[in-house]
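Q: Here's a chain of 395 amino acids. Please give me its 3D structure as tokens.
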Amino acid sequence: MVDSILFITNAFPDTASSHRGIFIKKLASLLHEEGHRVSVVAPKIYKASRLFEVQGGVKIYRFPFFAGNKPLIEYEKIPYLKMIVYYLSGTVLAIYAFFRNRCSLIHVHWAIPTGLIGALLRSLISKPLIVTIHGSDFRLGTTGSGLIRRLFLYVCRRANHIHCVSKVQSKALTELGIAEEKISTFPMGVDRTFLDVGKAQDRIFREGPVTVFSNRNLQPIYNVSLLIQATPLIMREMPGVKFWVAGDGPERERLEKEADRLGATGHIQFLGRVRPNDMADLLSKVDIYVSTSLYDGTSVSLLEAMASGCFPVVSDIPSNREWIRDGENGFLFPPDKAELLAQRVIDVIRSRSLIEKSRKENLRLIEERALWSVCMGRVKEIYEDQLYSVSHGTK
């Protein structure tokens, strides 16, 4: 039985309405509901965020590092001086939270940067360290500078167990020399609310204008500009289509100007940041889900759209291929070809039966592989196995 767990994470909701790291909050809440004590250590990004608070029984400790209201993912270059403060402040607070709450296990989210804090903490104690690799950390750890790659590999070697969210990641880790038995592969979970939406859609064939939707953050890695470029191409063939772009980020102003320059402003509605609790209702009104991302671990946004009955049209990148079979339960397109994205969307609209055909398969996939109940079972199994191994001296 796992009594007390320490999460160390690079992203966690900064306020009650924040979406940053919302799936980490969901996992912590589910563990708390099952009787575990959960403490979270995360960086303090915004001035409005509290240094300490309790949300739904989960204790949250935030360490300051002069973030300047800017998440690390928005920096074009690594802010090395800030990162020195990040690691010093984060390590001290993690040590305090660990001993203050008598934790029996450490679960780090993102091998880079927070994995190093977890690895340092593990060197001081004899408790299990589990590391979940998401997306940006894997990309940095496998394509970044030599120093970043060495730190990434150090964290992976120090971990008792590694949770990868995609097969692409687990395959790469084994090629780097990490033992296969040390790795588990499954996505972060999808709330059943989305599946309920999808099952309701299965009984309703919507008439009227088609709605195309994107909800990736407006940052360069998510390549939302490609959808803006594809919009006028789609409108030439299908003038009644509606485009909703949710999310926020440093690229928003540039994307709005690009839409205006292409004459697409009247067809695209920028929704801004959507509250997590409102996303399922919004997806219930969507026909086609588009993700133009250049890189992903396993996109929870994609899984939520699949669960909600939307037809996925997503970039042809390795992690998306694990979930989408082109022409069967969705479409794939090269992430640098606006005209091919446009053609894929047009193909779906011209054959609305594709939406109905894909829906049943996607609902089955999510129910079997991605619901929180499934993922929680895997997480708890890892915890129990690692605690047993450490207590019996087998690891």
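Q: Can you summarize the key feature?
A: The radius of gyration is 21 Å.
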